[in-house]
Amino acid sequence: SDEFYKRTLARLQKIQTHLETAPRARRLKDKVCIVTGAGSLKGIGRASAVLFAHEGARHLYLLDFDATNLPDLKSTIETKYPDVKVTIQQGDAADDATIESLCKQAMQEEGRLDVFFANAGIATIDGLQEISADQFMRSMRINALSCFLAVKHASVAMEKTNPSRDKEFGGGSIILTASVAGLRSGGGSVDYSASKAAVNNLAQTSAYQLRNTDIRVNSICPGLIETDMTARTFEYAASRGTMSKIGQLSAMGRYGVAEEIANMALFLASDESSYVNGQNYAVCGGLSSSHPVAP
Ligand code: NAD
């Protein structure tokens, strides 16, 4: 019911603000990290950047096509965590030269690259027969090609990082944001779902191709997460009083917040996931394993 739904909001707020009081465990101490798609105010990229800073990352390189909010994110992080360096850049995560030079910049400035979180993406909500060839290719480019470029260029940099990392465990971690829509048939439009399925396979195949290195590649498959991307859908549902139905698509009866995806990104970025490789992780409150009836 909506009553149940309202009660979950308080819990979500707690999850969103827990860093205000959480001790800094520094699980990313000394790590140099790139995060793409970090620019939106309620997005997974921004929440991850803040969490990575909280956990003591040495230097964060944050990229977004829309750079409007990046200066504020940089000063928010640097004010709260003076030991963390933040470099922001406006750019296209699906542009070969941009991603290559970002990885090279990290190597030049820090001599290492430990984490690449390829999170930039777009969503579409069109019926199969309305999708143009251009739209299909745009989804493939922004969602899937961006992840390929991340794996390609980050792995080159991470291999060069190896000598200094020899004494450590965990190695380099490349994290791709896919979606539960890329795991199985779902409500998303086919261009989006196909691009995210490509991302999931990319994580598996790249992990295998990079075998015998200490570079791990995994993908995260978020379920329904309240971010700028889903804001329109959520507003529409709220105006019709069907928010609880959206929540009930997952076994937990609620949608998730960006911080809950950031926590999985943190685990995969940290050395605690040292034996986790080539996997597709659903973080969806049980959505991917239930059989929802569309609201
Ligand atoms: P968001 O819209 O809040 O954030 C995505 C960010 O990516 C935006 O800041 C956008 O400007 C940026 N971006 C888009 N194209 C780009 C490009 N070519 N180069 C650089 N930056 C670009 O959405 P979000 O929900 O935080 O999405 C993050 C990732 O999570 C996406 O890959 C999305 O597909 C995935 N995802 C989200 C949900 C959800 O329910 N929100 C579910 C499954 C997967």
UniProtKB/TrEMBL annotation:
The keyword Oxidoreductase appears for this protein: yes
Q: Which CDD domains match?
A: SDR_c
- The record lists the membrane-crossing segments as none
Q: Which GO molecular function, any one, fits this protein according to its record?
A: oxidoreductase activity
Protein's UniProt name: NAD(P)-binding protein
Q: Entry's InterPro entries?
A: NAD(P)-bd_dom_sf, SDR_fam
Signal peptide residue numbers: none
As for family, the record states: Belongs to the short-chain dehydrogenases/reductases (SDR) family.
Q: Name one Pfam family in it.
A: adh_short_C2
Which UniProt keywords are listed?
Oxidoreductase
What Gene3D superfamilies is this protein classified in? NAD(P)-binding Rossmann-like Domain (3.40.50.720)
